[in-house]
Structures are given as C-alpha cells and as structure tokens.
C-alpha cells in the first residue's frame, strides 16, 4: 500500500533539500500539534525522528475513516488511541520504504519507539547536537504538507563515504530494464564524419572560385584523417577504398587529452 492509495487521490511528492542545523533549532520550528515519531535504525547508533505535518496526519485519519473532505481541520489536541493506530499504519509504510532506501548502503531495520505531538517531549538528542534533516513535500489538490527525517550527524558519520557516493555498488539492477535500455542505446543512430582537411581563404578568393580550381588543404596526403562522432574528435584513420566505396581504416582512438587539443585547434 502506498500513500496515494491511502489518500485515494493522485499526489505529487517532491524531495526537499538536505540541510544541517542544531537539534534544538529543528525542534523549535516544529508547531504543536505535529505527528512526531521516534525510531531507531538498527544496527545504527542513536535515535532519529520522523515528523509528519499535522495537516497530513489528520488527512490520513480522515481518509482511513472513509471521509472525503478536501480541507481537514487541524485540532490543537493529542491524537486519540484510535487515531494513533491509524497514523501508525502510515508510519509503517514509510519505515518499509526507508529500509529499502538504506538497503544499498547498509541493511537496517526501523524500530518504532514512541509517538509524540509536542516537540518538547521528543528531545532524544542533546540540544547543541548537529542533525541532518531531509524529507519530502506532499502536494494534493487542496493541501500540502511535509514528511521529514531528522538524523544525528553522529549516527550517519560511519557511513559518510557511502552516503557521498552518487552510485552504490550493491544497488539492485532490474535486468529486464537494463537489457531494454541497452537495446535502445545500442540501436541509436549517431553522426559519424571524417574531416579530410581544412583551410582558410578570403571572401574574395571564395567569390572568384571557378570549376577546376584547386583548394589546398592543411593536411598532407599521408597524414591520418580525423574522425568525428557527433562533432567530437574520437579517432584517426587512413583514407582508402573498400568495395568500390570511399572508406577509412581506424588507426587510433584519441585520448581525452588529445580530444581536447583537437577541439581547441578546430
């Protein structure tokens, strides 16, 4: 089950920029009431917070109970035991997706500790401790709200190298999707051109050209021909004939440094 299924309508989910701040500053910006959930990612050290905006929390409750209202009133009270159980269903779905996201870094298990509505009772870290905050903005037709994760910097410190890496070596790969993508890429057509040579002439010379005139290029007949792939110099070759057609025999693949030199000289 996904969040859109619970809410019974299409939603837009946007990733929010990651930032760091002091834990006390993070708590001070959380209004009352808010659906705050304290959890632990085992085997990581320390506790973390999952924060669901009250607008979203009451909307989840409304939809679980069969309501269809687009605008939900946020009540300044604690959640009832029934409401807490309903919100816990959403939390479990989020935890399940969170475990999947961590799978490429280190296998974790999200252990639920307790829920709060007042941030003053969610002081699981020292006030001056640095935390990393990330999350998502959930947009519906009539309302929007945030789902945030707050981690202690000390919790993530042992895995910073893996977290900084743009790709994870243990990432799961859908083989069918990969083969389909390979077929699509390998069947793509590209522009391949060979430059026999270049020269610079004046506009007057150009205007005076006649049939039979000879244009002298900057290359000697024995020099290799530059081969371009989509306008980028990639190879050098030897001009010749193959099956009664002009052809080029590849003699060398250019290094990145040689490519840059060719680009600058063109």
Report on the structure:
The protein folds into two domains: 3-169, Chemotaxis protein chec, CATH 3.40.1550.10; 190-265, Surface presentation of antigens (SPOA) (Roll). 30% of the residues lie in helices and 30% in strands. It contains nine helices and ten strands. The chain has helices at 3-7, 23-28, 54-64, 81-102, 153-156, 160-164, 175-186, 203-207, 256-265; strands spanning 12-22, 35-42, 48-52, 109-116, 130-139, 144-152, 192-195, 225-229, 232-242, 245-253. A six-stranded antiparallel sheet has the order 1-5-6-3-2-4. Helix 3 (54-64) packs across helix 4. Residues 167-171 have low confidence and may be disordered.
């Amino acid at each position: 089950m996904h969040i859109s299924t619970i809410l019974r309508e299409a939603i837009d989910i946007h990733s929010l920029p990651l930032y760091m701040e002091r834990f006390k500053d993070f708590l001070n910006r959380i209004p009352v009431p808010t659906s705050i959930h304290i959890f632990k990612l085992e085997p990581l050290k320390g506790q973390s917070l999952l924060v669901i905006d009250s607008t979203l929390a009451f909307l989840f409750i409304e939809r679980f109970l069969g309501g269809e209202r687009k605008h939900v009133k946020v009540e300044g009270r604690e959640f009832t035991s029934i409401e807490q159980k309903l919100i816990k269903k959403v939390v479990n779905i989020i935890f399940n997706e969170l475990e999947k996201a961590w799978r490429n870094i280190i296998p974790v298990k999200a252990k639920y500790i307790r829920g709060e509505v007042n941030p003053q009772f969610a002081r699981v870290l020292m006030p001056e401790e640095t935390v990393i905050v990330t999350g998502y903005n959930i947009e519906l037709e009539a309302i929007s709200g945030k789902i945030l994760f707050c981690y202690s910097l000390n919790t993530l410190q042992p895995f910073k190298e893996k977290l900084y890496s743009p790709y994870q070596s243990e990432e799961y790969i859908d083989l069918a999707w990969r083969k389909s993508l390979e077929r699509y890429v390998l069947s793509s057509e590209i522009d391949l051109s060979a430059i026999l040579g270049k020269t610079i002439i004046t506009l007057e010379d150009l205007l005076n050209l006649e049939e039979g005139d000879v244009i002298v290029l900057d290359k000697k007949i024995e020099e290799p021909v530059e081969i371009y792939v989509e306008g980028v110099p990639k190879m050098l070759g030897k001009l010749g004939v193959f099956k009664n057609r002009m052809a080029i025999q590849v003699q060398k693949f250019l290094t990145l440094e040689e490519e840059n030199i060719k680009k600058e000289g063109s």
